[in-house]
């Protein structure tokens, strides 16, 4: 059952995500990962390009939050210019941080997109809650050991993703809905 790790959409970079594409799918809010999604891991503050892109999302009517597994120091510093609602040490794929962000935005999980570079944290975490998941290519290929060891199994999943059938898609859709129901009933 690798479908639970499949994203709903894949893009080369965040700059390929057109707000209109999300709005058409009834998405009203976006949860962003930081490291290797918005910037490389060594970049401490949001650069102008990121700031402008997030402004564009907001101008299109989308709400924007950050949910990161990184430390408070990392997230607070990065968020200085952006000033969006941010959750640090989120323990993705756990649902706590993602739910906190969707509740803050006043949106149901199915109205939220999760954007990230890792299948087993960002994408799986979003899928479990029936959020719309967007996989971006890592900004930088210099990665810490704990991330690097996950890239090989990710490749195996993505090979399956590219060869998926419509039955896989249907099974995945149902799994997402059932999983979200289970988690939301519990919380
Ligand atoms: Mg990341």
Any descriptors?
single chain; 6 strands; Rossmann fold; binds magnesium ion; six-stranded parallel β-sheet; globular; alpha/beta; 45% helix; 187 residues; 7 helices; 13% strand
Task: Report the radius of gyration as a whole number of Å.
Answer: 15 Å
Q: N-to-C SSE series?
A: EHEHEHEHEHEHH
CATH architecture: 3-Layer(aba) Sandwich
Distance between the termini: 25 Å
Overall body shape: globular
What is the number of strand segments?
Answer: 6
What's the name of the CATH homologous superfamily? HAD superfamily/HAD-like
Strand content: 5-15%
Task: Give the low-confidence spans.
Answer: none
- In spatial order, strands of the major sheet run 1-6-5-2-3-4
The ligands found in this model are: magnesium ion
Helix content: 40-55%
Integer count of domains:
1
CATH class: Alpha Beta
Output the number of helix runs.
7
Main beta-sheet strand count, sense and barrel state: 6 strands, parallel
| Mean of residue pLDDT values | 95
- CATH topology title: Rossmann fold
Tell me the structural class. alpha/beta
Summarize the structure.
With 187 residues, this protein is of the alpha/beta class. It has 7 helices and 6 strands, in the order E-H-E-H-E-H-E-H-E-H-E-H-H. Residues 33, 35-37, 116-118 line the site of magnesium ion (MG).
């Amino acid at each position: 059952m690798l479908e639970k790790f499949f994203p709903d959409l894949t893009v080369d970079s965040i700059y390929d995500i057109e707000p209109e594409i999300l709005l058409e799918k009834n998405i009203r809010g976006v949860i962003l990962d930081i490291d290797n999604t918005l910037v490389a891991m060594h970049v401490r503050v949001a650069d102008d390009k990121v700031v402008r892109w997030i402004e564009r999302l907001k101008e299109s009517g989308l709400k924007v939050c950050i949910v990161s597994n990184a430390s408070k120091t990392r997230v607070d510093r990065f968020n200085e210019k952006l000033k969006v609602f941010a959750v640090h040490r989120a323990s993705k794929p756990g649902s706590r941080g993602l739910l906190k962000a969707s509740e803050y935005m006043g949106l149901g999980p199915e109205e939220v997109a999760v954007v990230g570079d890792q299948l087993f944290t960002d994408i799986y975490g979003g899928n479990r809650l029936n959020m719309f998941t967007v996989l971006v290519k890592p900004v930088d290929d210099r990665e810490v050991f704990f991330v690097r060891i996950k890239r090989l199994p990710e490749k195996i999943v993505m090979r399956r993703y590219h060869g998926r059938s419509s039955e896989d898609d249907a099974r995945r859709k149902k799994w997402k809905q059932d999983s979200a129901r289970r988690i939301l009933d519990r919380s």
